[in-house]
Amino acid sequence: MKIIIVNGPNLNLLGKRENDIYGDETFNDFFETLQSKFKNVELEHYQSNIEGELIDKLQEVGYTYDGIILNAAAYTHTSVGIGDTVKAISTPVVEVHISNTFSREKFRHKSYISANAKGIILGFGLQSYELALMSFLSK
User: What is the pLDDT of residues 80-124, one digit of tens each?
Assistant: First the structure.
């Protein structure tokens, strides 16, 4: 099984930014732990702060991978383009958020991705990614 995690803006700052919301572990450290837990999965990750690069990556993997775990971060709430891409590709997408976006600012309550995602997992910290991964394994 081939799964990719696609992370949007500022997620490269995990472990440094707003630790009360996002924790103090870097994504790279978390990803290494995830890889060691799921050795039978070909697991990759990609991060960009640029909307078009995220769209390009989704299009690149969106017909050949078994699953995409997408945390579009702030673009979740603003990017019609990313939402349209999720709708256009055939690979199932699970939308993930580290924080509970519904307990935060009102603008974070809207997602342009959710309507076309296989599912949504939010509010469980970095474990949200692991839960998303498990959803692909429990077919």
Answer: 999 999 999 999 999 999 977 756 668 667 899 999 999 999 999
Q: Report yes or no: 129 and 67 within 8 Å, Cβ to Cβ.
A: no
Does 77 belong to an annotated binding site? yes
State how many domains the chain has: 1
Q: Position 62: which residue type? A: G
Listing DSSP states for 6-68 in one string gives EE-TTGGGTTTS-HHHH-S--HHHHHHHHHHH-TTSEEEEEE-S-HHHHHHHHHHHTTTSSEE
Looking at this protein, which amino acid is placed at residue 107?
Answer: F
Q: Which residues of 63-98 are buried (b: 16+ CB within 10 A; e: fewer)?
A: eebbbbbbbbbebbbebeebbebbeebebbbbbbbb
Residue numbers of the domain that contains 73: 2-137
79 marked among binding-site residues: no
59-83 pLDDT, tens per residue?
Answer: 999 999 999 999 999 999 899 999 9
Whether residue 104 is annotated as binding a ligand: the answer is no
* Burial (CB count <10 Å: 0-12, 13-18, 19+), residue 131: middle
Catalytic residues: 22, 97
